[in-house]
Amino acid sequence: LPTQKDPTMLNEQIICREVIDFLEKDQHFREKLHNTDMEDIKQGKLAKELDFVGHHVRTKLDELKRQEVNRLRTLIKAKQDAEGGHEMNHKVLLKQFEYMNHMNPHTFEVEDLDKLIQSATNDLENYDQKRHEEFKRYEMMKEHERKEHLKNLDEEHRKDEEQHYEELRKKHADHPKINHPGSQDQLKEVWKESDGLDPNDFDPKTFFKLHDTNGDGYIDEQELEALFTKELEKMYRPNLDEDDMTEMEEERLRMREHVMNEVDTNKDRLVSLDEFLMSTNKKEFLEPDSWETLEQAPAYTDEEMKLFEEQLAQEESNLNQKTSDLQKQKEELERQQEKLNAQKAELHLPLPPGHQQHLPARS
């Protein structure tokens, strides 16, 4: 069960990785894990094998669960303290316990493993889609800001800016041919440039072992993404105006997704040696189509851009309305204060510190 090595990774994914690391120390469970496909894992078949692992592994898992339950309870207490005694939405807080049975905080059971696997795999399945959506919004915001900038320029400077923009686009598009990700040509280039080996001696089995960097018998998503670095360096260079590193990471994600769809036949988000060797016999590996890069495949449509700008305009309108309402409230409070001060002066009552009381001069 791979997990994303990312700062935004959810805590249940971290715990899931730690649990699986413990379980893999048990020979029986390790064999079951490697021989069970992802659909069976999702249906809870793997979780039932917990009953057959060794006592020392169960003891470690019990301790891990106690630590995690204590961490979550401390987190909830901290949130309650931060709210200063205000009523808390306990249903929302307890959702943080969904990936473990917190009613039994002492022992790690089959139900815990099943919940944990379900939660982690659901997060992973949604992870890439969220990244694509975030990238689409990033690209639309960048284009929106560019157009807003042009609106504030006179005609001469606007033409200069548009010409400069087109020059940058052409510079970015002027790069060497991009090999189809996962193709023989692409892997041979890695074999030659990164591994320092003769491309004429390319051997898929040796290549797999070289790039299974943690030696677990699988190429995971991070190990796979590392294979695309040479291709990405053809298109992107840090500190160049025409190259956007956020776009580079989206391109890397697209490449990884494509290869996984082609090679990962059991959909467990891992590439086994058998899957890899099988893929090297396919036509797509030997005679691939050309790769469509981001500049050839826009992240958003004209209709999506229109809806996005309408949304921004509505948000700006709402913000302006709130600002106007707050200003009116401020002015009304100031009028009420002035009226109160006048009433106090008439009654010869002392004014608050900082306010001068003007009384009629004595004759």
Automatic annotation (TrEMBL):
<feature type="compositionally biased region" description="Polar residues">
    <location>
        <begin position="314"/>
        <end position="324"/>
    </location>
</feature>
<dbReference type="GO" id="GO:0016020">
    <property type="term" value="C:membrane"/>
</dbReference>
<dbReference type="GO" id="GO:0005793">
    <property type="term" value="C:endoplasmic reticulum-Golgi intermediate compartment"/>
</dbReference>
<keyword id="KW-0344">Guanine-nucleotide releasing factor</keyword>
<keyword id="KW-0732">Signal</keyword>
<dbReference type="InterPro" id="IPR018247">
    <property type="entry name" value="EF_Hand_1_Ca_BS"/>
</dbReference>
<dbReference type="InterPro" id="IPR011992">
    <property type="entry name" value="EF-hand-dom_pair"/>
</dbReference>
<dbReference type="InterPro" id="IPR002048">
    <property type="entry name" value="EF_hand_dom"/>
</dbReference>
<feature type="compositionally biased region" description="Basic and acidic residues">
    <location>
        <begin position="147"/>
        <end position="169"/>
    </location>
</feature>
<feature type="compositionally biased region" description="Low complexity">
    <location>
        <begin position="354"/>
        <end position="363"/>
    </location>
</feature>
<keyword id="KW-0963">Cytoplasm</keyword>
<feature type="domain" description="EF-hand">
    <location>
        <begin position="199"/>
        <end position="234"/>
    </location>
</feature>
<dbReference type="Pfam" id="PF25434">
    <property type="entry name" value="NUCB1_N"/>
</dbReference>
<feature type="compositionally biased region" description="Basic and acidic residues">
    <location>
        <begin position="325"/>
        <end position="338"/>
    </location>
</feature>
<comment type="similarity">
    <text>Belongs to the nucleobindin family.</text>
</comment>
<keyword id="KW-0238">DNA-binding</keyword>
<dbReference type="Pfam" id="PF13499">
    <property type="entry name" value="EF-hand_7"/>
</dbReference>
<keyword id="KW-0597">Phosphoprotein</keyword>
<keyword id="KW-0479">Metal-binding</keyword>
<dbReference type="GO" id="GO:0005509">
    <property type="term" value="F:calcium ion binding"/>
</dbReference>
<dbReference type="InterPro" id="IPR057576">
    <property type="entry name" value="NUCB1_N"/>
</dbReference>
<keyword id="KW-0677">Repeat</keyword>
<keyword id="KW-0964">Secreted</keyword>
<feature type="region of interest" description="Disordered">
    <location>
        <begin position="147"/>
        <end position="183"/>
    </location>
</feature>
<feature type="region of interest" description="Disordered">
    <location>
        <begin position="312"/>
        <end position="363"/>
    </location>
</feature>
<keyword id="KW-0472">Membrane</keyword>
<keyword id="KW-0333">Golgi apparatus</keyword>
<dbReference type="GO" id="GO:0070062">
    <property type="term" value="C:extracellular exosome"/>
</dbReference>
<dbReference type="GO" id="GO:0005085">
    <property type="term" value="F:guanyl-nucleotide exchange factor activity"/>
</dbReference>
<dbReference type="InterPro" id="IPR040250">
    <property type="entry name" value="Nucleobindin"/>
</dbReference>
<dbReference type="GO" id="GO:0005794">
    <property type="term" value="C:Golgi apparatus"/>
</dbReference>
<protein>
    <submittedName>
        <fullName>Nucleobindin 2</fullName>
    </submittedName>
</protein>
<dbReference type="GO" id="GO:0003677">
    <property type="term" value="F:DNA binding"/>
</dbReference>
<keyword id="KW-0106">Calcium</keyword>
